[in-house]
Design a protein that fits this description.
The complex is a heterodimer of chains A (842) and B (123). Chain A is α+β, with helices and mostly antiparallel strands. Chain A has 22 helices and 28 strands. With 123 residues, chain B is mostly helical. Chain B is built from 5 helices and no strands. In chain B, 51% of the residues are buried. The chains are: A alpha+beta (842), B mainly alpha (123). The A-B interface holds A 14-15, 17-19, 21-22, 24-25, 28-29, 32-33, 42-44, 46-53, 55-59, 184, 188, 750-753, 802-805, 807 and B 14-15, 18-20, 23, 27, 52, 55-56, 59-60, 62-64, 66-68, 70-74, 86-87, 90-91, 93-94, 97-98, 100-101, 104-109.
Chain lengths: 842, 123
């Protein structure tokens, strides 16, 4: 060929140039249409007609009249200046159809990516980097669980009407879109929205169940038990904390106490309760190999529920409020994200008039108020997520042992489609307990996932929470609210309630397996049938309180009851500082105003710091003046000690002392435990902060302070000084908000669409439980005067479009602790309306 | 003059046709009208770059740079102006290459087509 070319002395044929140029043009056009590596398609993305520029909102929204297929009658949607829609429909079907349309108009990409994530279908749209996430979802049987829920939804006329009308509304919106009108994330990631199905709504509820009930410390606690022994576990992970206020006021009597029906005696609460039958031997699970850090996928969705998921709510009766009407406050703490997990809306139709926040993708309002009542949620924290060690007959994994018999393993083959490569098939193994989530030699995505163990999880039992949500929205008094909860099985919640007729209440509600005390705290032997869940706690026996004498009720993910309650609900309750502080403030509260109630939600007083800092400062300065080399303090050290001594224990954003204390405590805590627990903090359950605090205060000479990796004998005094110096070096005079900026990240982890430097107060152990990227995702206070009236705010904005000024316009006010008026509009003609959509049937 | 034609053609056609419209209209104009490869490329480039930049600038101004600044940050560009410039460059490249290759094809095919027509008319 070379020879031929070199011998070629004829001129290049005339056709070469035009055709090669045209070819080049086609090549560029081809690339312009498809993404190159991680970059979006240049032509379709950058052109100003249908590319990202099209997502730049220009000017205020204008009123429109739209024809929506499927509507029975006309619907008015009125927006206020914050972009909050009030939907006025003439029947329930149209209401939910319009809700689907309106929410999709603002949040389509978010709804779909979250449903796809829950379904384990992200690799289908985003490629192989999401395969592990998808496989984990399938292995946990989350998609199957959602399908089972959908069957129940279909059987209930009202739920199905809501879910199917909602889907029709979303699809009506999708059908109006040309590719140029897709949300910008579709353009960046290079895919298109698919048809919305009612299954997606079930998947989103499943996702919420996973977030709030899909975790635990069974494995890490079992590993800790195996390594450190029963005495250690008994001491550092006590089964019940006696001193903390329960949700249902202590002393409440239980009229269903029938000792004969109880699985175990309650007079002694041993750490590990023998199961009925054979003595229980803690099994040693296959400890998963130390997971290497999970590479951040395109949308780095959480691989495990955030252990800090939790919330506050409280209700005050009219006797303790300023205007004599009940007050209800709620701030669910969740991962802070953009677009926000919440969307604010008012829904009005005959029989329904409710205002609050909805989960984009799911019909109804989850937290809010109607014309008669208000309600708020915190997570119940009950243990409905257990692991069983499975004994397989042989390496074919087709049979497992149960009660001295070999039972067949059910196999379910899942196909996972992957964008840009071949479909992968994955076999999920099922025992009667539930699925085997992790096979041997596989890397866990979630730290509490033992290999070759079966998962028993309430979220895999069919339930229809949507039914409960729809009934709650319509309830008008205590009785109706109470019966509305019936179908709310998972995740269990503390439902705070208040009504215009003056009632207040708190329901610790969900579906609870009847467990023997301690059942499911540790990984259990799956072949022993006495370890299986057997039956459910009757709904009439769930903890509940109505109009207590004290005039207030609260919950902060703390234990629901005192020790007299006959049923064992688990041991994941957060018996911490938040609950203690909240009960203190409420006990003091008198003639409370809504603004004061809101300020309680903003309280950033850190009881943990108040408890331990004075002790630490004492230890630090105890030998001052002695010839000890350790405590020769420089002037700057002394200034820091003085600063800490004057600190009021409030995590204000401008406090330097807050940063110093936080860093100091973390270094000290690590200093005490790291030598025992190692660098791998995934394998063991580290002792809690409360217990560590107690150790410092009550056992200053304990052996646990000695670093077993050195030949020296370290003391508490040594650790305190060392961690103090580390903290000083680490903090470098940063204020709390500089040291711990709050990050509100875009769901696809796109920094440019995130707010990474939000300056605000609060701390993990404060009522205002603000952490790096986790905290009060909605704050609401409702006063139940003749008509409920609310104030509230969430850290985000109504629009999911980064090209809209409503994308993140609430964040500054949220960070500053302000709230908006949640104005219930009685009719579409309200003067605060800015623009409207008239939705007409076809 | 041709650049002006292409400016309006890409601006108006942009709303009606897919994003690769500048390449197509550039190709057609290059094929029939334009004289010389450099002039063809420049006409296609300038016409499209200006129309894309004009619309991007207007959009950006109405949007108060909100989205353009965010997109700039994704692509490590200094700011909204750079997003507009990059938009213009990409549009210009497609328009210019379209017109150039259209011209080249025209230069090659036009004589053949003419002779084909003239041979037909002789019959």
């Amino acid at each position: 060929l070379l020879k031929l070319i070199s011998m070629e002395d004829k001129p290049i044929p005339a056709w070469i140039k035009p055709f090669s140029l045209t070819g080049l043009l086609f090549l560029l056009l081809h690339f312009g249409n498809g993404s190159i590596g991680k970059l979006p398609a240049p032509g379709s993305f950058w052109n100003p007609f249908s590319g990202f520029w099209r997502n730049a909102e220009t000017g205020p929204s204008k009123s429109q009249e739209l024809r929506i297929p499927g509507l029975y009658e006309a619907v008015s949607v009125v927006y206020d200046k914050r972009g909050v829609p009030r939907i006025f429909a003439q029947n329930a079907h149209d209401l939910f159809l319009a809700q689907g349309y309106v929410v999709a108009r603002d949040r389509l990409w978010q709804m779909e990516i979250q449903a796809m994530s829950s379904a384990g279908r992200l690799s289908e749209i985003l490629g192989p980097s999401l395969l592990e996430h998808d496989r984990n979802q399938r292995r946990m049987a989350i998609p199957q669980g959602a399908e089972r829920d959908l069957e129940l939804i279909k059987q209930d006329v009202e739920s199905w009407r809501a879910a199917s009308a909602y889907a029709d509304g979303v699809n009506a919106y999708i059908k109006t879109l040309s590719p140029g009108q897709y949300p910008v994330e579709y353009k960046l990631l290079g895919y298109a929205p698919q048809t919305w199905t009612p299954l997606n709504s079930a998947l989103l509820i499943k996702n919420m169940q996973w977030m709030l009930s899909g975790g635990g410390d069974d494995l890490t606690l079992t590993n800790t038990l195996a390594k450190f022994g029963v005495e250690f576990v008994r001491k550092f992970y006590p089964a019940r904390e006696p001193n903390i206020e329960p949700i249902i006021p202590a002393g409440t009597t239980w009229d269903f106490l029938e000792p004969k029906s109880l699985p175990t005696k309650l007079d002694s609460i041993p750490l590990i309760q023998p199961s009925p039958g054979q003595p229980f031997l803690p099994p040693l699970p296959n400890v998963p190999q130390a997971p290497t850090p999970v590479p951040v996928p395109v949308p780095a969705l959480e691989s495990r529920p955030n252990p800090g998921n939790g919330s506050n709510n409280f209700v005050i009766s009219g006797t303790r409020s300023m205007n004599g009407s009940p007050l209800l406050a709620n701030d669910p703490h969740l991962n802070l994200s953009l677009p926000s997990i919440w969307y604010e809306a008012q829904l009005s139709a005959p029989g329904i008039s409710v205002y609050g926040v909805t989960l984009p993708g799911s019909p109804g309002v989850l937290i809010g108020f109607n014309q008669k009542i208000a309600w708020g949620l915190t997570n119940g924290q009950d243990d409905v997520y257990d692991w069983y060690k499975i004994q397989f007959r042989d390496s074919t994994l087709s049979e497992y042992k149960q009660a001295d018999q070999w039972k067949p393993i059910q196999k379910d083959v899942q196909s996972i489609r992957i964008r840009g490569s071949a479909t992968i098939f994955d076999t999920v193994l099922f025992t009667h307990h539930g699925p085997i989530v992790l096979k041997s030699q596989e890397r866990p995505l979630n730290r509490n996932t033992p290999a070759m163990h079966a998962l028993k999880w309430l979220a895999l039992e069919p339930s229809n929470e949507l039914h409960a949500i729809l009934q709650i929205m319509k309830a008008s008094d205590y009785q109706q609210f109470s019966s509305a909860l019936k179908n709310f099985h998972c995740p269990s919640q503390n439902f705070a309630f208040a009504s215009v007729n003056g009632d207040i209440g708190m329901f610790h509600h969900g579906l609870f397996p009847r467990k023997w005390t301690g059942q499911g705290r540790f990984v259990m032997d799956g072949s022993e049938s006495g370890n299986d869940w057997s039956g459910w706690v009757p709904q009439t026996e769930l903890p509940e309180a109505k109009n207590p004498e004290q005039g207030w009720l609260f919950s902060a993910n703390n234990k629901p009851t005192d020790t007299t309650y006959p049923h064992y609900l688990g041991n994941h309750f957060i018996n911490g500082e938040r609950a203690q502080r909240l009960s203190q403030l409420l006990a003091e509260a008198d003639s409370l105003t809504p603004a004061q109630a809101f300020n309680i939600l903003l309280d950033d007083y850190d009881l943990h710091a108040a408890e331990i800092l004075p002790s630490l400062l004492n230890i630090l300065t105890q030998n001052r003046g002695s010839k000890n080399q350790l405590n020769v303090f420089s002037p700057s050290d002394s200034a820091i000690i003085a600063l800490l001594g004057k600190w009021d224990f409030r995590h204000h954003s401008d406090q330097i002392a807050a940063s110093l204390f936080d860093s100091w405590w973390k270094q000290l805590y690590r200093g005490i435990w790291q030598d025992e627990f190692g660098d791998d903090d995934l394998r063991y359950q580290w002792p809690s902060q409360e217990r560590t605090r107690q150790l410092i205060q009550e056992e200053p000479d304990s052996d646990w302070y000695n670093d077993i990796t050195t030949t020296l004998k370290e003391t508490l005094y040594f650790l305190v000084i060392r961690s103090f110096r580390e903290a000083c070096a680490h903090v470098q005079g940063k204020t709390w908000s500089q040291y711990r900026p709050v990050q509100i990240r875009h769901l696809a982890q796109i920094d440019a669409f995130s707010q990474l430097q939000v300056a605000t107060g609060g701390c993990a152990t404060c009522i205002n439980a603000m952490k790096e990227s986790h905290g009060p995702a909605w704050r609401m206070v409702v006063t139940l005067d003749q008509q409920p009236h609310g104030i509230g705010i969430y850290p985000g904005g109504q629009s999911g479009n980064p090209g809209s000024r409503h994308y993140d316009d609430f964040i500054a006010d949220w960070a500053a602790g302000r709230a908006y008026d949640l104005k219930f509009m009685p009719n579409p003609g309200d003067p605060s309306a800015v623009y409207s959509l008239q939705l007409l049937g076809k | 003059m041709s650049a002006l034609i292409l400016f309006f053609a890409t601006l108006i056609g942009g709303w009606l046709f897919p994003w690769w419209w500048p390449a197509l209209i550039g190709y057609i104009v290059g094929f029939w009208i334009l004289k010389g490869p450099a002039r063809a490329f420049m006409a296609g480039f300038i016409g499209t770059a200006l129309s894309w930049a004009a619309l991007a600038t207007y959009t950006d101004w109405q949007n108060q740079h909100l989205l353009a600044n965010r997109i700039a940050s994704i692509f490590h560009l200094p700011g909204f102006l750079a997003t507009i410039v990059l938009t213009a460059l990409i549009g210009g490249l497609y328009g210019g290459l379209g017109a150039w290759s259209g011209f080249a094809m025209g230069a090659y095919l036009r004589p053949k087509v003419k002779s084909w027509f003239s041979s037909k008319s002789e019959i």
